[in-house]
UniProtKB/TrEMBL annotation:
EC number: 3.4.24.61
Lineage start: Eukaryota, Viridiplantae, Streptophyta, Embryophyta, Tracheophyta
Top-rank taxon: Eukaryota
Keyword Flavoprotein (UniProt): no
Database matches in InterPro entries: Metalloenz_LuxS/M16 (IPR011249), Pept_M16_N (IPR011765), Pept_M16_Zn_BS (IPR001431), Peptidase_M16 (IPR050626), Peptidase_M16_C (IPR007863)
Residue ranges, annotated region (Disordered): 41-106
GO molecular function list: metal ion binding; metalloendopeptidase activity
Keyword entries, A-Z: Hydrolase, Metal-binding, Metalloprotease, Protease, Zinc
Protein name: Nardilysin
UniProt keyword Zinc, yes or no: yes
Gene Ontology BP, a term: proteolysis
Domain Peptidase M16 N-terminal, residue spans: 108-223
Pfam families assigned: Peptidase_M16, Peptidase_M16_C
Domain Peptidase M16 C-terminal: 263-380
Length: 381
């Protein structure tokens, strides 16, 4: 039973293409979390959706099922050989092509999926623990109060043909997964706990600091990542862009060396920013919109309410001092010229797509274009 309720619901928010067979519903929970529910008729369940709502039980019988499957595989080997032989005999009947088409259709099965975006990213990193938002993203995978096993979420998804990932940007962090259609409820149950009661255990933190450090070391030889960090380093002090977004062992350990508790700083970042009003959720499955809505209400109503409207963080200071030229020695044999300039925030005017017009003018390659001019002089390829 849902703990909270639905503050707003509409089936008319999404403007659909005439060929779009999916149906949509936008809801806002009383805790401020907004969710877009998508019913895709091509993602259908073999069983009625009600039979799969409580799919924790399938793990209990999984070992028995695997043993039965092994026995069935052995018993069916001879049958498969006979079928292969009979297929060769029927090559001229035109049936083999139909069989291949049917097999292809059966093997391609659309999966259910979900993604949740939190309106906080690396701009929120405290100076004493840079890379903290990225580190927090890692820690939410390390178990929750209801599912304390660190591998529970990933294990559940891998057992049921799914996968997951996450990424941290400057102003948002996104978590997403996909799974076989009939296990969507179980995956959502585990996923929701990321945003309700993560454990953030000390021993897991030590391992994930090394994981973050490993990711940093993997991109040390990437020219694009080196260039990005140069842009951050040369930005104006006091601007949120003036951060080390990746984070590594040193940047996170420095906080502890200064007498701070990394766990306390991490939890403060989580509690200050991970609340319903800063979250957007999308769920797509084969169940009806009513079923998907009941699941979201049941599982995500426990998310902390917090602020319903995220405060705007306007900045008057420029990112860089104008007229600066920096040279960066490349790792690979490349020659790159990158020009950067700042634009006013386009968040409220995104429908006007001003940046797309600029990109089209700069990227156009026809006669009379900037690209045509530079290429004629051997300055561009």
């Amino acid at each position: 039973m849902a703990v909270g309720g639905c503050a707003f619901s509409s089936d008319d928010v999404v403007v659909k293409s005439p060929t779009d067979r999916r149906s949509y519903r936008f809801i806002q929970l009383t805790n401020g979390l907004c969710a877009l529910l998508v019913h895709d008729p091509e993602i259908y369940s073999d069983e009625p959706s009600g039979n799969r709502e409580h799919d924790n039980t399938e793990d209990k019988d999984e070992d028995e099922d695997e043993e039965e499957e092994e026995g069935e595989e052995e018993d069916s080997e001879e049958e498969e050989e006979e079928e292969e032989g009979s297929g060769e005999e029927e090559e001229g009947d035109g049936e083999e092509e139909n069989e291949d088409v049917n097999e292809l259709k059966g093997s391609v099965q659309k999966k259910a999926a979900a993604a949740l975006c939190v309106g906080m990213g690396s701009f929120a990193d405290p100076y004493e623990a840079q890379g903290l938002a990225h580190f927090l993203e890692h820690m939410l995978f390390m178990g929750s109060t209801d599912f304390p096993d660190e591998n529970e979420y990933d294990s559940f998804l891998s057992k049921h043909g799914g996968s997951s990932n996450a990424y941290t940007e400057t102003e948002h962090t996104c978590y997403h997964f996909e799974v076989k259609r009939e296990f969507l409820k179980g995956a959502l149950t585990r996923f929701a706990q990321f945003f309700i009661s993560p454990l953030v255990k000390a021993d897991a933190m030590e391992r994930e600091v090394l994981a973050v450090d490993s990711e940093f070391n993997q991109v040390l030889q990437s020219d694009s990542c080196r260039l990005q960090q140069l842009q951050c380093y040369t930005s104006a002090p006091g601007h949120p862009f003036n951060r080390f977004f990746w984070g590594n062992k040193k940047s996170l350990a420095d906080a502890m060396e200064k007498g701070n508790s990394l766990r306390d700083i991490l939890l403060n970042l989580y509690h200050d920013n991970y609340y319903g009003g800063s979250m957007k959720l999308v769920v797509i499955g084969g169940e009806t919109l009513d079923v998907l809505e009941s699941w979201v209400l049941e599982l995500f109503s426990k998310v902390k309410k917090g602020l319903l409207v995220k405060p705007e963080r306007g900045l008057d200071i420029p990112i860089w001092k104008p007229g600066k030229l920096y040279w960066l020695e490349a790792v690979k044999d490349v020659h790159i010229l990158e020009l950067s300039w700042t634009l006013p925030s386009l968040q409220k005017d995104y429908l006007k797509k001003a940046e797309d017009y600029l990109a089209h003018l700069l990227g156009h390659e026809g006669r009379g274009s900037l690209h045509f001019f530079l290429k004629a002089r051997g300055w561009a390829t």
